[in-house]
Amino acid sequence: MLKSLKKKMKDQAGLTLIELLVVIVILGIIAAVAIPMVMSQRQEAEDNTDLQNLKLVQDAVNRFNAVEGVWPGSTDEVITTTELVPEFLNEIPTTCADGTTAAEFRIDGNGVVESSCVTTP
């Protein structure tokens, strides 16, 4: 019986329909698990980029205050590039990490910078 099975397998030229279906099902399961993981990592990376941009602008504002003795601009206005660029910051980010939303940075009376890209809980 083993010899006849080996001969039958040797004569087989390709995959059976069942074998193909099993492979397709396995690939579907892998895709169903992997795609949500990749998408959630992308959102997390965008959030981290926005937070890093906020910290970068906050650092430039703090350095401006240390040198000039005042906060840049007036309270609760959008921070402009003329106040911080090029001495304290190469450039102010103009878009959020999602690529569609315009980034605005505002400073309060205590020197705390807020970003339109970062939502605070």
From TrEMBL:
Transmembrane parts of this sequence: 20-39
Highest taxon listed in the record's lineage: Bacteria
PROSITE patterns: PROKAR_NTER_METHYL
A Pfam entry, by short name: N_methyl
The keyword Transmembrane helix belongs to this UniProt entry's keyword annotation: yes
Main localization of the protein described in the UniProt heading: other
UniProt-annotated location(s): Cell surface; Membrane
The entry's keywords: Competence, Membrane, Methylation, Transmembrane, Transmembrane helix
Family annotation (InterPro entries): N_methyl_site (IPR012902), Pilin-like (IPR045584)
Entry membrane topology: Single-pass membrane protein
Name of the protein described by the UniProt record: Competence type IV pilus major pilin ComGC
Taxonomic lineage from the root: Bacteria, Bacillati, Bacillota, Bacilli, Bacillales
